[in-house]
Design a protein that fits this description.
The complex is a heterodimer of chains A (247) and B (260).
Chain A: H1 2-16, H2 18-24, H3 27-60, H4 66-78, H5 81-92, H6 97-104, H7 114-138, H8 142-150, H9 155-166, H10 168-183, H11 187-192, H12 203-212, H13 216-246
Helix pairs in contact in A: 3-7, 3-10, 3-12, 4-7, 5-7, 7-10, 8-9, 10-13, 12-13
Chain B: H1 2-23, E1 29-35, H2 39-50, E2 57-63, H3 65-73, E3 80-83, H4 87-94, E4 103-108, E5 110-114, E6 135-138, H5 144-155, H6 159-162, E7 166-169, H7 172-180, E8 186-190, H8 191-194, H9 197-200, E9 204-207, E10 216-222, H10 230-238, H11 242-250
Parallel strand pairs in B: 1-2, 1-3, 6-7, 6-8
Antiparallel strand pairs in B: 3-10, 4-10, 5-8, 5-9
Helix pairs in contact in B: 2-11
The chains are: A mainly alpha (247), B alpha/beta (260).
């Protein structure tokens, strides 16, 4: 019910602004923006779910594998997106290991699908979620956890009532960076997306196409919109964190 | 300490020699921006040209014609521009970005290509077959081969039927690569690519009737950037030679002044 009324409100807002929107953004542009945000939302949720245990293990472990695992998680920061795009295209293809698996499971092949982009983006944005979480977890003193344990709090209880509140800024940073980095993805999408409207043509690719087709006006509108979005998303993040440091 | 400085001196001398070796290069240099369909044919032409120009450097960059057009308008340092659609160099000439007239050098053909099925018998109407889940074409928005593929699909009434299966490559070579990697079953690509050694050994092709699409007239220009570059002019003249025409014909291009 709530969702429905929200939807109706959004629609009426959109209708009011229709005149402005129509001149600036085509339906294909809006669909590309919507798709990028949908992709980023799904990816951020998945990354928070799998990134949290990874970050926790990395923050608490003193084992020899901490180094190698951290390096693997950080790979996408260093690797050209083309490397990731190339390997994913081959791996997810009909002769690749991932392709074999998805075909066995009856999902079909992942390249040129939204699910394929989700999988690629999860790899691509992993360090941007894991690293802030890991930093936040590492900042929690061992003492606090020991105290919780002496009070007979279970591991899960400790996590939800002690770790989570203490690591809240870390979760905020991780979500924002994971989301924003996925929205900004381009190279990997170009290589495995196949540029399909409503499925894999995200806003970054749409801008590229406008530029190549010399549709500069549309490219400007979308690019300026993305610039504003990126700034507005990052602004509170850095404003909050600088306040925290001053304390 | 002395050992270290002696080592440093040696490295320095080596670096100096290397840099001098680079700048002492006697020949001239040209950079060619070419449509992706020329990838294999132009590589061969450049090897042939180099065999008589040992001191000169020739660099080739392949991509979509539309992209290069935009880049040249923005001052990209390309000396020659080979487009898959003569429309692009014509606009550059009209806008004053050319240092030569537009030369028609070939007419391209589009084909259906597939490594996973007998493509020699394929027709456009076969694309509706449910066994074909993905069909790769170049992006019609800015890649000439994609535009022609779209025209042919629309002319046969197949466009609406198969639109949901289409995936778009950034240029025609990426469309071919989508098929080559097995992620799409069929591609509508350039005949010149289907005839390249790499793709020819993997799959067969079927020509698409040239009545179904506007001719893919391909033109090149010497850009304004190369107005004083004699090597660029020499290469332009070389393109009209017999040897080059033989290579182009071998890659399936119809040559200007020749009946099909």
């Amino acid at each position: 019910m709530y969702v429905q009324s929200w939807h109706a409100m959004a629609l009426s807002c959109l209708a009011k602004q229709n005149n402005i929107m129509e001149s600036a953004f085509s339906a294909a542009d809006l669909s590309a923006v919507w798709l990028a945000f949908k992709l980023a939302t799904v990816v951020t949720v998945i990354l928070l779910l799998i990134g949290t245990p990874i970050a926790w293990c990395l923050a608490r472990s003193r084992s020899w594998w901490k180094g190698p695992v951290s390096a693997v998680v950080a790979l996408p920061i260093v690797l050209p997106p083309t490397v990731l795009g190339f390997y994913l295209l081959v791996a997810m293809g009909p002769n690749g290991p991932l392709g074999h698996l998805t075909q066995l499971l009856g999902i079909g092949l992942l390249p040129f699908t939204f699910a394929g982009l989700v999988l690629a983006s999860v790899f691509y944005s992993l360090p941007f979620v894991v690293q802030p979480l890991q930093n936040a977890f590492e900042a929690i003193p061992e003492r606090v956890l020991e105290t919780a344990a002496t009070l007979r709090a279970s591991v899960l209880d400790t996590f939800f009532s002690v770790v989570l509140p203490l690591a809240k800024p870390g979760f905020l940073t991780a979500s924002v960076l994971g989301f924003a980095h996925t929205v900004g993805e381009f190279g990997v999408v170009l290589m495995i997306g196949g540029n399909i409207p409503n499925h894999t043509r995200v806003v970054s690719v749409q801008i590229y196409d406008h530029v190549e087709a010399m549709e500069y006006a549309q490219a400007h509108w979308l690019s300026a919109g993305m610039l504003l979005f990126a700034f507005l998303v990052l602004l509170p993040l850095y404003s909050f964190s600088s306040k925290g440091r001053r304390k | 300490m002395r050992v270290v400085s002696r080592f440093a001196a040696r490295v320095l001398i080596f670096v100096c020699l290397f840099v001098m070796g680079q700048t002492a290069h006697a020949g001239e240099k040209i950079t060619i921006a070419a449509a992706a369909d020329l990838k294999f044919a132009l590589d061969e032409i450049v090897v042939l040209f180099k065999s008589t120009h040992l001191a000169d450097q020739i660099e080739t960059i392949y991509g979509s014609s539309g992209k290069f057009h935009t880049q040249i308008q923005q001052g990209a340092p390309y000396d020659l521009y080979f487009s898959a659609d003569i429309f692009y160099p014509r606009t550059l000439e009209a806008e004053g970005f050319a240092a030569s007239k537009v030369q028609l050098y070939a007419v391209g053909r589009i084909v259906l290509w597939s490594p996973s099925r007998d493509a020699s018998a394929l027709t456009l109407s076969d694309l509706a077959d449910p066994g074909i889940q993905k069909i790769a074409i170049a992006n019609p928005q800015h890649a000439p081969y994609g535009k022609r593929a779209e025209e042919a699909l629309k002319a046969t009434g197949m466009w609406e039927k198969i639109q949901s299966k289409l995936v778009y490559g950034e240029n025609v070579a990426q469309a071919a690569q989508f098929v080559q990697s097995g992620n799409a079953q069929v591609g509508i690509i350039a005949l010149s690519l289907a005839l390249s050694p790499e793709l020819a050994k993997q799959g067969d092709y079927a020509l698409i009737l040239d009545k179904l699409y506007q001719p893919l007239e391909q033109g090149f220009i010497i850009t304004r950037h190369a107005v004083d570059n004699s090597l660029a002019r020499e290469f332009a003249r070389f393109m009209a030679g017999k040897d080059v025409r033989a290579i182009m014909a071998r890659y399936g291009f119809v040559l200007p002044g020749e009946a099909k």
